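ugh ok fine here u go
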Amino acid sequence: VLKENQRRLKLDWVEIVKGDARKAPYVFKDRTFDAILLDVPCLNTGVLKRRADARWRVDEERMGSIVELQNAILTACSRLLKEKGRIVYSTCSLEPEENEDLVTKWVRDNPDFRLVKTGKAFPPDSGTDGAFAALLRKK
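structure:
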């Protein structure tokens, strides 16, 4: 579906890569990028309307492991950014642990980056599914 949308929108300049994002620095070796979009795995609490079964998979243990995975992906992919590059970190979750808390702690632990802004869509107020996004910029 992603490649179909890429063709339909004539976004031939966008490179789509499938793989384990935690290993991205090894896949891309010496390549760097101006911008990276990370739509990380999450608990899906923003899309419970469409995925009601997700509510039964939320517990402390799963929260801890998903946050660890999200942090690892963000850390690995941040190494691929050029100076002053930007990265958008996004989830379809509403949990602060996966969103604001994670990004705040990550920026504190990675002083070469700054948090530019965040946005959150909260159903039903937004008229959309729930989502979170943070724009980070490399200094």
